[in-house]
Amino acid sequence: MAAVLGTLAPVLVGCGGGDDDSDDGRRPSGEHVTIKVPADAPTISAAVSLAKPGDLVLVAPGVYRESVKISKARVTLRGESRDKVVIDGRLQQPNGVVVSAPGVAVENLTVRNNTQNGVLVTGSAKAAAGLPGQSGGYDTGDEPVTFLKSFLVSRVTATRNGLYGIYAFSAQNGVIEHSYTSGSADSGIYVGQCKPCRIVVRDNIAELNAVGYEGTNASGDMYVVGNRLVGNRVGLTTNSDHQEKLLPQKDAVIAGNLIADNQQAATPEQADGGWGIGVGVDGGSANRFIRNRISGNTNAGLVITATADIKPDGNQVLDNTFSRNGVDVGWTFPTATKGRGNCLRGNELRKTVPARLATTASCPRPAQSSSPSGTWTKPTAPGGIPFTEVAAPKRQPQFPNAKTTGATAVPAAPALPDPADIRLPSTSLLAAAARVLTS
């Protein structure tokens, strides 16, 4: 460490920073530095240990076989090259990057081959320690709910991870954007256990995962907008689950997404066997699905169902375009738990189960009105492949001026989108999706 500090000393003199007044006398307060890996520190973890709030850890191309833990506020971790800066877990560690402090940004790098998560952002000490999560989801027992407040994950590629690619658990006030996930054995992007979330998941690509996006017990100011969820086993789910706290799931906005062709065989199998579904609502309530393009899902475009004891109430399906799905919208309640007040308006539909839902369950609908239920013939799901064998991702867009831009200031709370401003995705994106899946 002395050698590292000696290398950094010329950088730190006269341009320090952070919330502390000094850095052992070498760093004045009020300014921030860039710590380069490996020029100033031999590993990413070593650079993070030197960083103060407001600093940038800038990583040169290379494969870094380490698990990076960021427990200092307002540190930016950025790769110089998104596809050439690789944090590789070698299937020997649970997480690639763990963020447990507010105001942290993780940008422009690839995280792969972790037994649990590529990037984990969390206020849970148990989750940060990698203790739970062996069977999907995080059951933290009697640990009190503690939120990490404010985060940013941007232009990250997360591939071939054993649970989730990018995972925000027990966190609030954050953004996951411009990222790519594939080969996740559970879901590519996951938001869990937050209320109110105040989280925006926007402009991401999720393909070749068991599930593209999953929101479990993620309620209140939760926005999933403008994403491309194509070629997974299931495109998107929003659900309630007793394995996590803050039941039930409520009040998410799912808008302007392309959710297509989610029956890809060369993917990891989902734990409950989901297959060929664009959107699944399982015990979630008061969610709004607005102007999504949902196409080519062989089982169903959008399914509303109930968990064993948590009913889905008051979901609204508004102005979406459905095409080429086995069933466009299907409501099915196989147990005594029934939904109420779910409704549709303004959608392009071909087939619903039960039939004529657009007429019999038109919005607005009384909150206590019983939602009808039906069944349909579902295709048989093929066997999956190990997450370690999923196709490698193609090169993804870079963070602009990654080497010269300073640290990213993460706001205390993100600006939330106005659903009225979110448009239906163009039909041209379906052709682009088909090219990706067949190339």
TrEMBL record:
<dbReference type="InterPro" id="IPR012334">
    <property type="entry name" value="Pectin_lyas_fold"/>
</dbReference>
<keyword id="KW-0677">Repeat</keyword>
<dbReference type="InterPro" id="IPR011050">
    <property type="entry name" value="Pectin_lyase_fold/virulence"/>
</dbReference>
<dbReference type="InterPro" id="IPR006626">
    <property type="entry name" value="PbH1"/>
</dbReference>
<protein>
    <recommendedName>
        <fullName>Right handed beta helix domain-containing protein</fullName>
    </recommendedName>
</protein>
<dbReference type="Pfam" id="PF13229">
    <property type="entry name" value="Beta_helix"/>
</dbReference>
<dbReference type="InterPro" id="IPR039448">
    <property type="entry name" value="Beta_helix"/>
</dbReference>
<feature type="compositionally biased region" description="Polar residues">
    <location>
        <begin position="362"/>
        <end position="378"/>
    </location>
</feature>
<feature type="region of interest" description="Disordered">
    <location>
        <begin position="362"/>
        <end position="384"/>
    </location>
</feature>
<dbReference type="InterPro" id="IPR051550">
    <property type="entry name" value="SCF-Subunits/Alg-Epimerases"/>
</dbReference>
<feature type="domain" description="Right handed beta helix">
    <location>
        <begin position="152"/>
        <end position="317"/>
    </location>
</feature>
